[in-house]
Model the fold of this input.
Amino acid sequence: MSEPGSLRHLAAAALREDLGAAGCVTSTSLGLAETPVRARIVAKAPGILSGMDVVQAVAEEVSPLLRVDARVGDGEAVEPGSLVASISGPRTAILLFERTALNFLQRLSGIATLTREFVKRVEGTRARIYDTRKTTPLLRSLEKNAVLAGGGENHRFGLYDQILVKENHIFAFCQEKGLPTRGPAAVASVVRAARAARPEGVRLEIEVRDGDEAEAAARAGAEIVLLDNFTVEDLAATVKTIRALEGPAATTLLEASGGITLETVAAVARTGVDRISVGALTHSASALDLSLLMGDE
Done:
């Protein structure tokens, strides 16, 4: 039995969702035989591929007789008409495989394609493009791998592998301690408390609302300061302020976030930030148009 969270487990669950208890009533009603046939997956739009590993897992779950020969690897570009994969096996198995495999492949390739576009827009700057936790439940590992295929970077995977103090954390901590819940002093207090209690090797990032809070966070020892919903002008000013500090605070990583689009990301990158996190990579990417066609290539 496949382990929860594994590719085979995800593939099996997706197929159960599609087949239900009755299986493919269309193939059954048409009396289709198990005749061996060939098929192919082709691209209908330009993009970056991601997800062939889960496509292989779907094939293995459908039938041991189903073979998928990938012609394009994750991170590689396709153009309209590109042959993505050749498939062989029983006719009915290919029909069962088709939609589930394409759903994964189109979704993940769409993420890789959008990520590549963001990455291209920041070329020549120090900024790197990062994803977020705004992922499809249970598909996070696949979607974050798609970001990597597109040339982006992964932010924390979950709540367990990095401290990221957000606005509500600051409010909750300071309210509980009887401290002011806003401003540089509140930010510094939270950073010092988190640094003192964090697990070994876990990095600390904190979200701030303005340049004064950013400076307080850097001076208090945050490794990463998240500049959320800053204007381009405020980003540039904050970068200049932090880089002018003395000691370790001057090397604090600065991350921009908040509604950043393909149209605005280049300007954000030119402010000198180190990281740009974009939730849209995984929550708003359009599926790459791919098709499965039966018959010889």
Summary: The two ends are 35 Å apart (CA to CA).
